[in-house]
Amino acid sequence: MEFLLTLRRRGIADQAVLRAMDEVPRAVFVADEFSAAAHEDRALPIACGQTISQPYVVAYMTEKLGVARDNRVLEVGTGSGYQAAVLSRLAGEVVSIERYRTLAEAARARLAKLGYDNVEIVVGDGLAGWPERAPYDRIMVTAAAERMPETLVDQLAEGGVMLLPLGPQGGTQHIVKLTKTSTGLSREDLIPVRFVPLLPGQAREL
Ligand code: SAH
């Protein structure tokens, strides 16, 4: 309850997004040692030196993405699988790419345990997108890019929306909302954030 109140107080108003945030048990996506903190509004460490985003940022990006029931959504940066789980409660199908096999496998196991069967987790370089299932109605990148990943823009459907943290590594990035229309792209810069970097290539470490 406190969890949802915090999100509401910070301005998350979309009922479907709040319902999805309520439904997905964040504790399942963090290490046991952090389960007590799972419902606090803060980012937490996960394996491979990565982080699970702050719930507010997950809710905010999900709300701004504007996901519909029949949408196919691509996420880049599976991490724990939490954001993918939230998206799966709103979308028709979700494809999520992770460059660490270890993280991808753990995320897959969590989603299977929860019975969220409309998510496909793939191991690879998210900068290449996932052409097999393109185009996507919605794309969410959850690692910070220094410049616009054009390959992902290409995999966005007409009328599609992409959200990504854009800006210098280690500095302040902004969530950028890109909308593709028949006449081109429109860009809106949203809140300042700090994400782990979007790195090229599949991770060599397991
Ligand atoms: N959305 C995640 C948190 C993302 S942390 C969650 O809900 O838990 C960012 C993730 O992006 C990390 O797991 C990192 O390994 C991954 N990542 C970074 N660069 C990537 C790339 N090029 N392709 C795929 N995944 C990438």
Question: How would you describe this protein?
Answer:
With 206 residues, the chain is of the alpha/beta class. The protein has one domain: 3-Layer(aba) Sandwich (Rossmann fold). 26% of the residues lie in helices and 27% in strands. The protein has a 7-stranded mixed beta sheet with strand order 5-4-3-6-7-8-9. The longest helix is centred in the middle third of the chain and has 14 residues. It is globular. The model has no long low-confidence stretch (mean pLDDT 96). It binds S-adenosyl-L-homocysteine. S-adenosyl-L-homocysteine (SAH) binds next to strand 2, helix 4 and strand 4.
Briefly characterize the structure.
By secondary structure, the protein is an alpha/beta fold. It has helices at residues 2-9, 15-23, 55-65, 82-88, 101-114, 150-154, and strands at residues 44-45, 51-52, 72-76, 93-98, 119-123, 136-141, 156-166, 173-181, 184-193.
Secondary-structure blueprint:
Blueprint: H1 2-9, H2 15-23, E1 44-45, E2 51-52, H3 55-65, E3 72-76, H4 82-88, E4 93-98, H5 101-114, E5 119-123, E6 136-141, H6 150-154, E7 156-166, E8 173-181, E9 184-193
Parallel strand pairs: 3-4, 3-6, 4-5, 6-7
Antiparallel strand pairs: 1-2, 7-8, 8-9
